[in-house]
Design goal:
This protein is mainly alpha-helical. It has one domain. 63% of the residues lie in helices and 0% in strands. The longest helix has 36 residues. The radius of gyration is 21 Å and the shape is globular. The model has no long low-confidence stretch (mean pLDDT 79). Bound molecules: zinc ion (ZN) (2 copies).
Length: 327
């Protein structure tokens, strides 16, 4: 394990050197503004062993109670799901946790007037709960925007392209999408305040839940599922059936979908998942040699689509400009 850590450190140093950010400097800045506890928490919770502890129960329950019993286990898509988090692993500690701490540091240092201090000096559990609710609300809207704004959808489509949902699908996100949603999710920090440990605890525990709701597990969590997102609930969000398009955006709490009219009341359905007619971005081979090529293709996909859409908009605008003179 130590040689693995050494290897990771070497790569991390290379990455941080490349982007011009030094881990020690970030750590110092975070600790200087009261973040020692947060640094300890994030270091512990992003330890590969701890992440594995969150993943293993999901894998066991999948075998005992699968939503799609005949789902293939060894697919190219699964390999890809494991390839996606690699850029994040290479960035020091956990990208999201670190991002949250950095955002908090920037807000506190440069934009202190934004802070209403609503969560400041409250017990840690109140702050964590507050962080959970506010951030989940922001997640709902950031997720909805990623479906309803076409350019954002091109990035989010990568996440939906997995036909065989599994815990690792939670990692299948385009890096640009991770940055977009991360930025939206950390905005509440500026408004409600609270401590580093509360926000970091929330962000990391949040990641654990992602494994569970993407797992191939047949459960709607019974009465609890009326309040908390279950694997059945999120499976409907990933459905290929038209009647399920653009619903169940919530990732932790169900209340936002109920409030904003995007709730699917059918709690018994376990639909097929993926994107209909998505030949361009789907991986259709298990060949491990081809997987990196699919990965690169999926990385390029949103930019290709945005390019096409800019070209099309330009063509239409030109046609409109020319139309009156021809009349
Ligand atoms: Zn989605
Ligand atoms: Zn999902």
């Amino acid at each position: 394990m130590s040689s693995l850590n050494d290897a990771l450190n070497v790569v991390q140093d290379a990455v941080t050197g490349f982007i011009g950010v030094d881990v020690a400097t970030i750590k110092q800045a975070v600790i200087a503004s009261g973040g020692q506890q947060a640094w300890d928490v994030i270091t512990y919770l992003t330890n590969p062993k701890v992440l594995l502890m969150a993943l293993i129960p999901c894998l066991i329950i999948e075998r005992l109670r699968p939503a799609a019993p005949h789902q293939a286990h060894r697919t190219g898509g699964l390999l890809l799901d494991f390839l996606y988090p690699i850029p994040r692993i290479l960035i020091p500690t956990a990208f999201l946790g670190l991002g949250t701490m950095l955002a908090m540091y920037i807000y506190k240092t440069y934009l202190p007037f934004l802070n209403t201090g609503l969560l400041d000096n409250k017990p840690l559990w109140v702050q964590t709960l507050g962080a959970f609710i506010v951030s989940d609300f922001m997640f709902y809207w950031s997720h909805r925007i990623r479906h309803e704004v076409r350019w954002f959808w091109y990035f989010h489509a990568i996440h939906h392209s997995q036909k065989h949902l599994n815990p690792a699908t939670t990692h299948r996100t385009h890096p640009i999408e991770t940055i977009i949603s991360g930025a939206i999710r950390t905005i509440p920090i500026a408004f409600v305040g609270g401590s580093y440990p509360a926000w970091v605890l929330f962000v990391v525990l949040n990641n654990f839940w992602g494994y569970f709701i993407h797992a191939n597990i047949r459960t709607n969590l019974g009465w609890l599922g009326n309040f908390i997102v279950s694997p059945q609930y999120h499976r409907v969000h990933h459905s290929t059936l038209e009647e399920h398009f653009d619903i169940n955006y919530g990732e932790r709490l169900v209340i936002w979908d109920k409030l904003f009219g995007t709730y699917c009341p059918d709690r018994q359905v376990y639909p097929p998942t993926g994107i209909p007619n998505a030949a361009w971005i789907e991986e259709n081979s298990n060949n491990p040699v081809k997987i990196p090529l699919y990965y690169l293709k999926q990385m390029a996909y949103p930019f290709v689509r945005i390019g096409q859409s800019v070209k099309e908009t330009g063509r239409l605008a030109l046609a409109r400009l020319r139309a009156p003179s021809q009349a």
